[in-house]
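In the design runs reported in the main text, the only information available to the sequence generator was the tokenized backbone. The following block is the verbatim input for one such run; it is reproduced so that readers can re-run the procedure and compare outputs position by position.
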């Protein structure tokens, strides 16, 4: 297969390596306005060729395209791919704003061109096992879900400026994991946040953003979700999910790379070393996710995360953003936020 890749920044560079390692991918066609980023990919794999811009890439006969450009470019690139009949994988979020996400949802509705939204935890073996435990009924009624994403360091200022904020950029992974694992939708959100005084507070204030946030989720069956996020966890990259039922409880992410130490005497777990970032913690999930997209693009697999599905996560992120700004619970209704 010939797969296109638009955007070779932080996540795009990871995807380039992952796609190049897939047997299904015979050629990788890449584009990015930053020449050194393109040169680095071309130097790393013989499978890659470069084109000048996204329009040229979409006209080059690729079998599918991976969109890893900045968040504010997602909506236009998804629409362009669908208009050209090119199956698309788009990194989260769907768009920089909920209005743009709704516009994309309408634009692709009824189209036979698949658009897969990137939420890699759906492909992490431990998260898959947690979902299976819930679906099997082994946990009984699930009363609490806790999802955590603690980044070891803030993103670059240029990335932060177009990220859409901590809920659209970081917490969306947790919101999606809670929805996907439980099979429930979020109906109410209350979010709070703070800025680490050592982490360039003026920069975050300029974007109405925070470095640390906690979001309380009310799910459609009464389950309570608690989502914790920070951009300043120097101990390492911490991604976990706990699912607590009346009969049993399970957790994903409790491995030897967990950047957390016990204060109990004699306890040496986790053995370490700690996960340093998403590239090592989720490497296998990215491989399976992009391999699945290739199968979707070839018409051999069902789309595991459609735009319609991902809209539930988009609305949750929007509700959390509004809740933080206005300091109140926000309900998600069929008509929008209330």
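Verbatim output:
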């Amino acid at each position: 297969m010939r797969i296109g890749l638009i955007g070779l920044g932080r996540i795009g560079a990871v995807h380039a390596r992952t796609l190049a390692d897939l047997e299904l991918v015979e050629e990788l066609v890449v584009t990015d306005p930053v020449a050194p980023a393109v040169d680095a990919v071309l130097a790393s794999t013989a499978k890659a060729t470069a084109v000048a811009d996204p329009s040229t890439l979409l006209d080059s006969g690729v079998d599918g395209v991976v969109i890893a450009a900045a968040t504010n470019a997602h909506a236009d690139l998804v629409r362009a791919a669908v208009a050209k009949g090119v199956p698309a994988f788009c990194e989260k979020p769907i768009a920089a704003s909920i209005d743009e996400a709704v516009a994309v949802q309408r634009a692709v509705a009824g189209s036979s061109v698949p658009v897969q939204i990137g939420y890699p935890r759906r492909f992490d073996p431990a998260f898959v096992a947690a979902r299976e435990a819930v679906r099997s009924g082994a946990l009984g009624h699930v009363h609490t879900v806790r999802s955590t994403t603690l980044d070891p360091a803030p993103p670059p200022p240029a990335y932060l400026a177009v990220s859409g904020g901590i809920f659209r950029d970081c917490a969306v992974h947790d919101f999606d994991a809670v929805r996907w694992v439980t099979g429930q939708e979020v109906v109410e959100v209350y979010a709070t946040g703070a800025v680490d005084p050592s982490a360039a507070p003026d920069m975050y204030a300029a974007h109405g953003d925070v470095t640390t946030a906690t979001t309380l989720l009310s799910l459609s069956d009464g389950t309570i979700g608690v989502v914790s996020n920070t951009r300043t966890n120097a101990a390492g990259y911490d991604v976990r999910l706990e699912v607590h039922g009346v009969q049993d409880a399970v957790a994903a992410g409790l491995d030897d790379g967990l950047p957390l130490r016990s204060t109990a005497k004699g306890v040496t777990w986790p053995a370490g070393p700690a996960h340093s970032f998403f590239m090592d913690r989720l490497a296998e999930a990215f491989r399976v996710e992009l391999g699945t997209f290739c199968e979707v693009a070839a018409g051999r697999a069902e789309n595991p995360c459609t735009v319609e599905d991902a809209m539930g996560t988009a609305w949750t992120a929007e509700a959390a953003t509004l809740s933080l700004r206005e300091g109140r619970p926000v309900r998600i209704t069929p008509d929008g936020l209330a």
